[in-house]
Amino acid sequence: MNAPTTRHSQGTPSWLGAVNDRVGLSALLDHGPLTRNRICELVGVSKPTASMMMSRLIAAGVVEESGQLAGSPGRNAVLYSARTDRPLGVAIAIDAFRMRARIVDAAGGDRPAVTIALPRDAAARSAVDEVSAAIREASAAAGTDPAMVHTVCIGTAGYVDPGGEGALFSETLPGWPTTGLREVLERALGITVFIENDVNLAALAERESGAGAGRDVFALLWLGNGVGTSFDVAGDLHRGTFGGAGEIGFLPLSVEAHALDEHARTSTDLVGAAAVRRIAEARGIGGADFAGVLESITASEARDEIIDEIGLRIAHISLPLLATLDPGLLVLAGPTAAVGGSRLAEAVERDIRRLSRWYPEVVATHIVGDAVLQGAHAFLTAKVREELLGRVARLAMP
Fold first, then answer.
1. Mean pLDDT of residues grouped by 10 in the chain (398 residues)?
2. pLDDT value at position 171?
3. Which among 28, 183, 201, 186 is positioned nearest to 105, based on CA atoms?
4. Are 380 and 151 in contact (CB under 8 A)?
5. 3-state class (DSSP) for residue 39
6. Cβ-based burial of 230 (10 A; exposed 0-12, middle 13-18, buried ≥19)
7. Quick one: pLDDT at residue 5?
8. Annotation: CATH topology of 213-366
9. Given 177, 301, 361, 395, which is the most exposed site by the fewest CB atoms within 10 A?
10. Contacts of residue 77, Cβ cutoff 8 Å, sequence gap at least 6
11. Do domains 88-201+373-389 and 213-366 have the same CATH topology?
């Protein structure tokens, strides 16, 4: 007796239609409004097939007619556009007392960012309330429905252990749960939550449109209140087993590095905000806060001298990173790097070569603006896009 024949969905009209629909929707997300003829060229289908694709996608609520293209022979051609008002995400970058947020759609559109001040009293802080406020205010700024937000990405200093109880290791989120943060937010808000290290997100931004674009491997060194690194291999970030890869700010200094500053015991002590303030104050330069100190350094006649001193310190704390990962490109990012610019990069590269056997190319970040928020936006665009394309595939399932 012959075995019964099993019918597989692969190769059936519904499966082929789903594949075409995903490719067609991807083309609209990548290129913007397109005519049927242009869709045929990009996707490689016939005009009747393109028409059926657009009809199915319109019925599914993910594509709409958005006008006509004038100027061609005969009747004006209809333009088709992907609907980017649903689903949506919110990219969030959070410091101790300030949060920036922006709506993210499947096409990666440029939506306005909002800044929200946070309470300084830990007792008045609430992770659920603050993320809810980010969703609400970002949606209002973009003119979108907050109910369409299905995913958020939170970029913060520190990291969440992906195993165990999901312990939060961060000094910049007072009042937030120290365990189970992701589960708390997802349960209360009914959305998917990603919590990412801010330096990793800065590296994503650098990969997307900065110095890391087109490079196989690079490392990013963040220089701000604290110090951290991220390692990128062809767009894949190495986070480590416990999520703490790159947390070099806690590393103790070598004898030679400690000799540069008697107050320093760790990498953060040597080049973090407190160290930069000490270097500036030794030359009579001050400021109300870290940002003020950096502004004063920029305007000072001693700027180059200060940048060179900071560069030597950065070279010392880079050596463990270079010995472990041996990247060909080291990108300097963060507030201190923004002030130092190309001179700081040149000083670090020169001193690394003088101190060690490594000789990476060292460059200043190419990202203008909020690198962490830009990285969260890039991360979330891929997630929202996959959700939208997944919806098309599910509609085609028998």
1. 43 67 93 93 92 92 86 75 94 93 96 95 93 98 97 92 83 89 96 95 94 93 95 89 90 96 96 97 94 96 97 97 94 96 98 97 94 97 93 66
2. 79
3. 28
4. yes
5. helix
6. buried
7. 41
8. Nucleotidyltransferase; domain 5 (3.30.420)
9. 301
10. 35, 36, 37, 68, 69
11. yes
- CATH node for 13-83: 1.10.10.10
* Secondary structure of residue 294 in the 3-state scheme: helix
Residue 260 CA to residue 257 CA, distance in Å, equals 5
Structure tokens at 104: 């993210």
- Domain with residues 88-201+373-389, CATH architecture: 2-Layer Sandwich (3.30)
Sheet containing 192-197: which strands, arranged edge to edge? 113-117, 98-104, 88-94, 149-156, 192-197
pLDDT for res 235: 84
Amino acid at 15: W
Look at residue 397 in the predicted model and tell me its pLDDT: 57
Identity of the amino acid at 43:
V
| Euclidean distance between the first and the last CA atom of the chain, given in angstroms as a whole number | 29
Domain residue extents for the chain: 13-83, 88-201+373-389, 213-366
